[in-house]
Amino acid sequence: MKVLGIDLSVIVIALITAYIGYQFNHTSKKREAFLKELTNSYNEVYSPMFEQLFIIMETEEKTAKLEQIESFMDEYSSKDSKIRFIASSFLLDYFYKLRGIYKKYKYENNRSNEKELLDQVKGLFVMIENEYWDAHDIIYENHKQFKSDSFNNPFLVFLGSILRIVYHLSAFLLWISAAVVYFTIAHIISPLEWVPEWWNITTAVLIFLAAVMFFSLMMMFREMVVKKNRRESRVVKNLKERIKKKFHR
User: Fold this and answer.
1) Per the count of CB atoms within 10 A, which of 3, 20, 157, 228 is most buried?
2) DSSP for the chain, written as a single string
3) Max alpha carbon distance in the chain (Å)?
4) Residue 1's CB: how many other CB atoms inside 10 A?
5) In angstroms, rounded to a whole number, what is the distance separating the alpha carbons of residues 146 and 29?
6) Are 89 and 39 in contact (CB under 8 A)?
7) Residue 98 in contact with residue 120, Cβ under 8 Å?
8) What are phi and psi of 214, to 5 degrees?
9) pLDDT tens series, the chain, 249 aa
């Protein structure tokens, strides 16, 4: 089938290519903007706030803890506070609620308000800790990889780069093959003129399965080559601690 003298398949391929190019460029720009904003949040508020809250949580003496909380709240409740750099709307809203609880505690200092304040500060610490480490992992995601590449054999570095490119290609082929299966099913339901007569669902599924196998293989190689800069998850840590306690009884 032709449109304005041009084969429809050529038009479809051109449109898909243009769309992929647009999405890649759009995604790259959004990622750059995201990293810039995240780095700013990390430097301006997550890191210093995490350090202060960590010291507060480590302090056992209640009077000293409450004094540190007072200093902390005074700093982040001032007009020049950098609390605006918190990216999470939920976390920012939580802080404003904490500020209200702190004001209530200052207005009426009793055990109930004190306990509520301490519990709210503890909750803030948990959330800030998560934001801090997530931001750190994202910003320094390639730290170990670049460090490894700096000392590795140049040939191995080049080979690793090729494998990473092929991995992304395998992911792209997986999505394309999935789209092919979708359009093949659509063709069965409502025949499309531009689909060749010899094409069938069996061929489409076989191509998709081959793409899945190729992607799985490249994912395995990627795990061997890529150096991930990730901290140990809290779940794994807790599991190790439980196992350690169990065997040291």
Assistant:
1) 157
2) -EETTEEHHHHHHHHHHHHHHHHHHHHHHHHHHHHHHHHHHIIIIIHHHHHHHHHHHH--SHHHHHHHHHHHHHHHTSTT--GGG---HHHHHHHHHHHHHHHHHHHS--HHHHHHHHHHHHHHHHHHHHHHHHHHHHHTTTHHHHHHHHHS-HHHHHHHHHHHHHHHHHHHHHHHHHHHHHHHHHHHHS--TTS-TT--HHHHHHHHHHHHHHHHHHHHHHHHH-----PPPHHHHHHHHHHHHHHT-
3) 83
4) 9
5) 22
6) no
7) yes
8) -65, -45
9) 444 555 555 566 666 666 666 666 666 677 778 788 888 888 999 999 999 999 999 998 989 999 999 999 998 988 888 888 888 889 999 999 999 999 999 888 888 989 999 999 999 999 999 899 888 888 777 655 555 555 566 666 567 667 777 777 888 888 888 888 887 887 777 776 767 777 788 888 888 899 888 888 887 777 666 556 556 555 555 555 666 566 555
- For residues 142 and 182, what is the distance between their CA atoms, to the nearest angstrom? 36
- Any bridge partners for residue 7, and if so which? 2
Please, are residues 59 and 72 in contact by the beta-carbon 8 Å criterion?
no
Q: Are strands 6-7 and 2-3 parallel, antiparallel or unpaired?
A: antiparallel
3-state secondary structure 17-72: HHHHHHHHHHHHHHHHHHHHHHHHHHHHHHHHHHHHHHHHHHCCCHHHHHHHHHHH
Nearest to 38, CA basis, from 125, 134, 128, 146: 134
Size of the chain, expressed as the number of residues it contains: 249
pTM of the model: 0.58
